[in-house]
Amino acid sequence: MVELTLPTLVALAAADAVNPCELAVLTLALIAILTRYPRERKKVLQVGLAFTAAIFLMYLFYGLVLINIFKGITAITGIKIWLDRALGVVGIILGAFNIKDFFSYGSMGFVTEVPRKWRPTMKNIIASITSTKGAFVTGLIVALFLTPCTMGPYLICCGLLEPLGIIETIPWLLLYNIIFVLPMIAITLIIYFGFTTIDVVYGWREKNIRLLHLIAGIILVAIGLALLFGWIY
Question: Which of 75-84, 154-163, 193-202 is modeled with the greatest confidence?
């Protein structure tokens, strides 16, 4: 039986953390608040952290739900190895799609990010942020938009956590999600302390979007192969 190890969890969380989706939604949230309060840097800190906290809590909730779903699947089938193999295939496919976006961004009619049809709605929701409380509520809603592009590594992680008791999974989920939101916290802090501007951050993201996909893709393919052939113990 394949078991989740700390290096595997860190690698999966890192693949999720470099996903261009979460970087994009945070920068949009900060742009929204800076447009309204261009001289109030404290607002940037409050909004950024509230938005990040909402994403963190929603993904923690998703994790608990997914683990229970996987427990139901293994209880019905009674064969854990097939779940591991299926997760391996998922990792390889998602990794391949990310690598595709490095070599040919947007080819095959899609990118491994928020679906294009959803983006105008998501941007309108984010643009409505006017307060810290609003940023938190918006973060809860936007977490739903992030699921298509960030759920892959988390799905694999939760599948590997399935054999553990629910209480035992919580430290693993907390660590995963702390790593997942670290870039969002870092961006909020560097803008708050004036080390850079939101325009520079957004420009960096756009310039390196293909590289971010490549990094995530390589990690996912490697872990997918390890799961498929039972190399993770």
Answer: 154-163
